[in-house]
Amino acid sequence: MEFQQVKPQKGSDIVLEQLRGRIESGFYPKGTKLPTVVDLAAAFQVGRSTIREALSGLKAMGWVDIRHGGGTYVRMTLPNEQPADSGFSFEQSRSLRELQEVRRFIETGCVSLAAARASETEVAALRRILGEMEAALGDEEASELADIRFHQAIAQASHNSLLIGMMESLTERLQSGMKSSRRLWFFAERASAEGLLAEHRAIVDAIAVRDEAGAAMAMAQHIQKVDRVIRTLAEEGADL
């Protein structure tokens, strides 16, 4: 008899799940401002970075909005209230393709600057996220969150506040566009999950050696793969 491997939960994942549970239960109603990072850190008895990571995850999943300098608020429309998609329509495909076109320009710019400006600490952080992505293979939700953190970390490493802001906005649009089927945005081709991880690793390797052109090319190739997935799903009329 084979046992399923038990993976220890990160502190931020535990915080995320508890906060999400309180939002779902109505303890934090829609539009409510959550306690501050300082207050949550004290309540959970964890560091502020753990709280920030949990809140970023909730934001990426569509549960909260984070307003810079204004706090974190429960969204008025929650993910579990989104209507189920009847299928992958042409209009969906066109909208997502347009987002991908914007994403290609923003992310290749981010990664090129990251290759020129990233600190050793930032490169190490990207490698840690790669480790999380590898550990999460087969876990759709954990993989998605790690993927989001990866691309946001690259934007942060660009040290360009405008690009960072555009990436945050773009991430929200991508998440909203996929709605309840957003996990397939990254993993429509389940057999290629390890290939996607290799693509992310190639991006980090290029950043680490300050190869701006190589990093941009690796990112462009990675995004093109998602483009192909979208086109295939649209042509097949697949239910996401």
Automatic annotation (TrEMBL):
Superkingdom of origin: Bacteria
Protein name per the record: FadR family transcriptional regulator
Boundaries of every HTH gntR-type domain copy: 9-77
Coiled coil regions in record: none
Molecular function as annotated in GO: DNA binding; DNA-binding transcription factor activity
PANTHER family: TRANSCRIPTIONAL REGULATOR, GNTR FAMILY, UXU OPERON TRANSCRIPTIONAL REGULATOR
Keyword Cell inner membrane: no
Gene3D superfamilies in the record: GntR ligand-binding domain-like, Winged helix-like DNA-binding domain superfamily/Winged helix DNA-binding domain
Organism classification: Bacteria, Bacillati, Bacillota, Bacilli, Bacillales
Natural source organism: Paenibacillus whitsoniae
PROSITE patterns noted in UniProt: HTH_GNTR (PS50949)
CDD domains: WHTH_GntR (cd07377)
InterPro entries: GntR_C, TF_FadR/GntR_C, Tscrpt_reg_HTH_GntR, WH-like_DNA-bd_sf, WH_DNA-bd_sf
UniProt KW keywords: DNA-binding, Transcription, Transcription regulation
